[in-house]
Amino acid sequence: xxxxxxxxxxxxxxxxxxxxxxxxxxxxxxxxxxxxxxxxxxxxxxxxxxxxxxxxxxxxxxxxxxxxxxxxxxxxxxxxxxxxxxxxxxxxxxxxxxxxxxxxxxxxxxxxxxxxxxxxxxxxxxxxxxxxxxxxxxxxxxxxxxxxxxxxxxxxxxxxxxxxxxxxxxxxxxxxxxxxxxxxxxxxxxxxxxxxxxxxxxxxxxxxxxxxxxxxxxxxxxxxxxxxxxxxxxxxxxxxxxxxxxxxxxxxxxxxxxxxxxxxxxxxxxxxxxxxxxxxxxxxxxxxxxxxxxxxxxxxxxxxxxxxxxxxxxxxxxxxxxxxxxxxxxxxxxxxxxxxxxxxxxxxxxxxxxxxxxxxxxxxxxxxxxxxxxxxxxxxxxxxxxxxxxxxxxxxxxxxxxxxxxxxxxxxxxxxxxxxxxxxxxxxxxxxxxxxxxxxxxxxxxxxxxxxxxxxxxxxxxxxxxxxxxxxxxxxxxxxxxxxxxxxxxxxxxxxxxx
Length: 499
What we know:
This protein has 18 helices and 14 strands. It has helices at about 55-70, 85-90, 95-105, 115-130, 165-175, 180-195, 200, 215-225, 235-245, 270-280, 295-305, 310-320, 325-345, 355-365, 380-390, 395-405, 425-440, 475-490, and strands at about 10-15, 20-25, 30-40, 80-85, 110, 135-140, 145-150, 155-160, 210, 235, 285-290, 455-460, 460-465, 495-499. About 45% of the residues are buried.
């Protein structure tokens, strides 16, 4: 992040139904909304049976992002957070789409897990509501997934993301807008089945108030109010009247519901089926609707990063604690990493890049977590945990980058691990891994004594290490380790020379 906080920040949510953008002034660390944009792209409708995102949907999405990009493409790096959710998690050709999407926006796009999406949604809701000590159930019906979160204040305690959304359920059960009592009953049953394993966790006895946080739920609340079926958000009685009305119609065009945005009409029945099933399964009587959602949560998370309250650092410490890492040893490795980066800083951009330094710091803290599973091949266990875990604050790309560095920090050094990383990490990560490998190697004896004042230089694929006086000849284990390391690196196209 830049030393001086940006004056304006933005967040973009590439949802399965709508794309949203929020732009905020930063006033002494407090975001003030100055602009909002929303376009209904219906990305989820473009997925075919093989989870390939079709070309016409991609073009519709890219046209929207060109418009969004006009607003934010000149914002400085680190002042914009853009995330993709369920459809971009699912689409097999998401990587090709993201390249074009990033060009349109001129900022990186990160795909987040459903659990991370749930955390950010809760953060957005907590920010938009007055803080209280009550336990809240927050529900967000997206286009392709629905998130359920229980939390108090700003802290989410339980989080789940279920693979059902207003677009996917509408497409599956109300094809071409056709309605019937049987179809609605089947859609409701499907949603109840998805919820069943989590019914006990999210049942009404486990929270004090229910809050809805999505366009689907806001549109349902508006319809219920406009028809006088509810005067207090979404109620069970109101939903029953709405469902009875839907079941009398044979097509969405016959619904004739007041205050229902025509754009939302094609996905409205799916959203109603999900919330109807949710109320029924969890024993909900009434739900208020919040303006805050994922994009507000992204802004809060971004502000935290700008002011050195990065959730990812909190998560790293939590994971390090959980897997009983040797923190003194990690601190020694971190210190040596910083010594190496300082020496390389004049010739390599990555050595001074704050994100690169941060990821190396985290890699040093977490590289040994796999030892808690098994010492043999522990680097593979460490990488697996990081790539596949629910790590709050981290996007899928963040986790893959961190896992790749840790996976390659010892033994065989395969550059193939880095090929699928997004630019510029595909170029930076091999060098970051080299730095971690050397720092770990130099501390293999795990003694707390200081290392000598060594020198390092990296010129293209050649690494030069120089130790003072007789230190290397008096350290036969390190000398043997460096010989072995030279062999590993040679196989990967690097040459390590040391004296």
